[in-house]
UniProtKB/TrEMBL annotation:
Native organism: Ornithinimicrobium pekingense
Membrane topology according to the record: Multi-pass membrane protein
Similarity field: Belongs to the binding-protein-dependent transport system permease family. CysTW subfamily.
Membrane-spanning residues: 21-47, 67-100, 112-136, 238-262, 282-303
Function text: Part of the binding-protein-dependent transport system for phosphate; probably responsible for the translocation of the substrate across the membrane.
Location within or outside the cell: Cell membrane
InterPro entries: MetI-like, MetI-like_sf, Phosphate_PstC, Phosphate_Transport_Permease
Alphabetical list of Gene3D superfamilies matching this protein: MetI-like (1.10.3720.10)
CDD domains: TM_PBP2
Protein name per the record: Phosphate transport system permease protein
Domain ABC transmembrane type-1, chain residue ranges per copy: 75-299
Lineage: superkingdom: Bacteria
Length: 313
């Protein structure tokens, strides 16, 4: 090693860290530790408060068949409503993001993006009232047609005359998660290296082929991340689902009355709950907490697996 290189190595190793660097590093580490402590505190609270419901005799739990028999229909309603919302909302959100980022003129794209972002500011109770008063009655005839022509499929059994069904709640949830997935996907697509796009076009690719071979692979980890954020919103949505759904017994019928979700069950019953009933609701919240954590860990695993093939690194 020559003398200048030796002096630079010695000076860099003995350089005094600036107070600003020390403060920033400490703040970053403290924030990360604080997040972990809050998460651990929430988990500890849920577990301790749920123990009475998890250990109580089956006949003392709502329904008289034990906690898991009580919570299973709620888990079913929560997961199914969220999955349907994702199936309906994700393709539309990705399509909007691609149109805004690569097809629309800049001024039009900025306007559409602004309008989509405004949807995120609409309170969930407004979506719930819109779904119950406007959306549900107009879906009633469609549900009747599905029941008459596809009634042999369990999910299309007897239709609800009011339209306040699990399917209606899922469609409203799909609208609610649109701005989250669209915003994240749009920003990721805009970060695609320009050289990648130009190289694809120079090789004779059409615009769609360029998007399929350069933009989508690069942005897929971000799209997955945005999709998981939308799924988290759908899993935890409370007021919109509570307003739209007409609570009832468990049913595989998506267009009939009945079914409920964990957030809606907690919101509707928590104010008057006490004793073991309160523990039941907190235990249901613990189940939702575990589901959400598992979904996010799975999404993180998918993103880590795809990142090395995306070109993002």
């Amino acid at each position: 090693m020559n003398a200048p290189a030796t002096r630079r190595a010695r000076s860099s190793s003995t350089a005094v860290r600036r107070p600003g660097d020390i403060l920033f590093n400490g703040a970053s580490l403290g924030s990360a530790v604080l997040i972990l402590l809050i998460l651990a505190g929430v988990a500890f609270f849920l577990v301790m408060e749920a123990v009475p419901a998890l250990t109580a005799p089956a006949e003392e739990i709502s329904g008289g068949e034990g906690f898991f028999a009580y919570v299973w229909p709620l888990v079913f309603g929560t997961v199914v409503a969220s999955v349907i919302a994702m199936l309906l909302g994700t393709p539309v959100a990705i399509g909007i993001a691609l149109f805004v980022s690569h097809y629309a003129p800049r001024r039009l794209g900025n306007g559409i993006g602004f309008v989509i972002d405004l949807l995120a500011a609409v309170p969930s109770v407004v979506f719930g009232m819109w779904g119950m008063a406007v959306f549900a009655p107009r879906l009633g005839p469609l549900y009747e047609w599905l029941s008459q022509n596809l009634g042999w499929i369990p999910i299309f059994g007897d239709a609800s005359a009011t339209g306040r069904t699990l399917m209606t709640a899922s469609i409203v949830l799909a609208v609610m998660i649109l701005p989250i997935i669209t915003s994240v996907s749009r920003e990721v697509f805009l970060q695609t290296p320009r050289l990648h796009e130009e190289a694809a076009l120079a090789l004779g690719a059409t615009k769609w082929e360029m998007i399929r071979t350069a933009v989508l692979p690069f942005g897929m980890p971000g799209v997955i991340g945005g999709t998981m954020l939308g799924l988290g919103r759908a899993l935890g949505e409370t007021m919109a689902v509570a307003i739209i759904l007409a609570p009832g017994v468990f049913s595989w019928n998506f267009i009939g009355a009945g079914n409920a979700t964990i957030p809606a069950e907690i919101a509707l019953n928590f104010p008057e709950a006490a004793g073991l009933r309160l523990s039941e609701l907190i235990a249901a919240g613990l189940v939702l907490f575990v589901i959400t954590l598992a979904v996010n860990l799975f999404a993180r695993w998918i993103v880590d697996r795809r990142a090395e093939f995306s070109g993002a690194n």
